[in-house]
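Chapter review: from sequence to fold.
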Amino acid sequence: LWKDRRMPGWWLKGVGGGRARMLILVRPLILRARHMSTVFRATAHLEATTQNKNAKDNANNVIIMESGKLARFADGAATVQMGNLLVLGTAVHKKLEAFYSGRTPLTVDYRERGVAVGRIPHTPTRREAAFTDTELRISGLVHRALAPMMSKTLVYDTQVLLTLLSSDAEFDTTTTCINAASLALQLAKATPTTLAAVRVALINGTCVVNPSLNLCSNASAQVVYAGNSDGCSMMLLSASQISQAEAMEMIKKAHEQVVILTSAHRDLIANVREVSDDDANDHDRSFVEGMMAHNKPQNNVVPTEALIHQVRTIAQPLLIKVFADDTLSVTQRLKALAHIERDTERILMGGSEVATREMIRRCLSGICGEALYLSHGSTKRRADGRGAQEARSLDGATEVLHAVHGSSLVNLGETQVLATVALGATDMSVMRNGFVLGDESQALIVSCDTPPFASASTSNRGFMYGRIEVEVAELVRLALAPMMPASIKHTARVHCDVLASDGGVMPAVAASSLALMDAGVHMTGAVAAVTVGLLQPPHQTGLLDSTVEPLVLLDVSCVEEEHGAACLHLAASDKGLTMTCLHVCGGAPVSVAQLEVLVGEGCRGVKMQLQKMGEVLSTARQVTRTDGCSVSVPFPPSIKRLLVGVRGAYVTKLEVDTGCSISINASDAVVLGKVCV
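The token string follows.
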């Protein structure tokens, strides 16, 4: 029976009871294992780093992709190799419909194994411990690159697992993980289009494709770029104050290499599907027939066109009215949106078997973006009364907490961020970045927390530090790191508390910069950041012409960031860019021309924020300890004799160098006295 793969799954429904039900589910796996025994391979040749013909020197420009050799039971599996770096990517669908609303049914996890680099973990059990920050950051980048490319009709939760199989610590694993995950999702038919990623570094004025880790240490800028021939789905640029022209040159070079790499992806996928298309259809058909045999209905969780039209008819006029009212505060606007969602559910869910709460929320998620665009088209104003290219005013203050080393409070519109700084010894700067990057000494450590009350909501996770907080903290660190002094002799730890959120956490960059300066860190200059949003015009018939240009919004609010097509986070000083990150929220990838417009608008917004920060820095600092302080330190007698008596000359030198008086009181305690004038 198993040799005839055309045999329908329902043939077994009356044979063997529970054994037959098991065979219905196992049969597709046996078919896939038999027909995926063929190994498929594709090779992409990117631009070489050097002209040397030695294969080791040019290993970064040869990317080998394989499928069919490992993980045959997965819905999609592929390996990507660059030099001695080998990553396995797998994608598996959950064969039960996912009742989700606005989220993407995609989970990505990246894991590094110690054996992949020839190391034994330093844990009591000698196994890998919890996820490191590097693994969390790479998982987040892969998710942000792939989420916009997911099929809109996908009804199954999809899990992508990325495993590091081999590495000689020569190349970074970020782009290799994105390529492996993209191939796995394509083979699992979860994404309709191909996606590829490359890293480009600017070294001595030359763009180098997929540089080694040693070359990256000498780079003035580097960018991780993911996309296809249509545009970019994710981009992360870190730089040491480069110009806008240099940044766009790197992005265009990365786009050229991505087009070459996606062509190799398509060749591999076409070869695999030529053999396995029948197996995939048979797998899905067997499961559906098996579920029908046991009277388990299939629920459709993808909104139909009729339901989308009904939700748009009811909710869109109300949404436009809310977005056009610039007298509403942020909390009032959020409450109004919640009321519209609740009223729409009450109207459509009464006795209907088609409309569910999750499907209505999915419809509203896309209709809110349309309403934002139409509201601006009619009033030429945004929801908070600003124009499209108008930024919110920045207000800040330093020394808000006198007991800490440095602090600042920044208000950007209704967004409020409190940043505090603690200075410590250099031995506190060692960060464990996983097995590939190894331990690294960082003079700047950043953490960021956005509690639920910042958005007037509640959550079961409270103050738990998760993947989102790690990603945001890394963006802030990349924005500030180039401005840290090269000869710093201590470690600075910055913590940002987002006390009120109305549009991202980029104000945390300005708050952190002010707090570091308040702590006495000699930064080379102030850094500011801004978020630029992109609203795509609605393409439904009768609403707008599809030739209408997208709308670029400077300094987006929370509603615009959540329901927009894309947003670009950009940080810069008065001398150039330090960090740029593109996040595509949904829809088509962002073209290079649109990306250039977003970068230009972001640079203009940063200049306005830097002027406001200059006014804050020009404010005279308050002297809070004019009389100094006294500290009584109990020393053991064995040590006390070293501070007085025969060591009197040394104590005198300490008093001269530090400006502090040292003496012993009546109770034989060493007293560090008031400041000597």
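Two observations follow directly from the output. The chain has a mean pLDDT of 78. The CA atoms of residues 38 and 588 lie 34 Å apart.
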